[in-house]
Write a structure and sequence with these properties.
Elements: H1 3-10, E1 18-21, H2 25-34, E2 39-41, H3 49-59, E3 65-70, H4 71-76, H5 79-87, E4 92-98, E5 101-102, E6 108-109, H6 118-125, E7 129-133, H7 136-149, E8 153-158, H8 173-185
Parallel strand pairs: 1-2, 1-3, 3-4, 4-8, 7-8
Antiparallel strand pairs: 5-6
Helix pairs in contact: 1-2, 1-7, 3-5
Bound molecules: thiamine diphosphate (TPP).
Thiamine diphosphate (TPP) binds near residues 23, 46, 71 and 102.
Length: about 190
Amino acid sequence: MKRIDALRAVYDRLGDSAVVTIMGAVAAELQSIGHRPNFFYLQHAMGLASSVGLGIALSKPALPVIVFDGDGSVLMNLGGLSTLARYRPKNLIHVVFDNESLLSVGGFPTATGTCTRLAEVAAAAGVLRTACVTTIDEFVREFAAAQRAGELTTLVAKVDAIGPAAFVTDLGLLENRFQFQRYLQGR
Ligand SMILES: Cc1ncc(C[n+]2csc(CCOP(=O)(O)OP(=O)(O)O)c2C)c(N)n1
């Protein structure tokens, strides 16, 4: 499964949610499908996208929050899963695109390619709804089920280590920051 195809497949389901992505490939892919004011692309703070999503979810319990994370980022901050589980916001879906690679910095292999199963790590951390999927159909089905469930979910999607040709877009970091802040204030 290609991550961009997975993003395209659920794009129409992101309209009424605050969406937080990690930096790099996934941010550029989502923007290439179409930026919206409810999308925030967290730069640099690797491992903290789920924490940003958690803060939004707790402060705005009526607002669905979706985090698009990466395996390298989650591995860098495994404690983030425990914190998610501890507060267990019903309005947060944590998607981890697991390409077994630090793709955005050159494709160095991560431990999910050899031994670590992140959906099981999330479950052991206390996340009650977890799944690991390998096809687009499964991804869409589990994503939609998580939206219906209204429970904290960590959905790991095994994807190819393929990204966009370039990561630079014409959306400035500050523009994204203020636009997203205004979106949140209006909700
Ligand atoms: C604390 C920190 N360390 C290192 C980096 C450099 N860096 C940016 S993206 C990235 C790889 C992210 O890997 P992953 O989460 O698996 O996402 P992918 O690039 O594979 O989509 C790294 C190491 C960073 N931004 N922050």
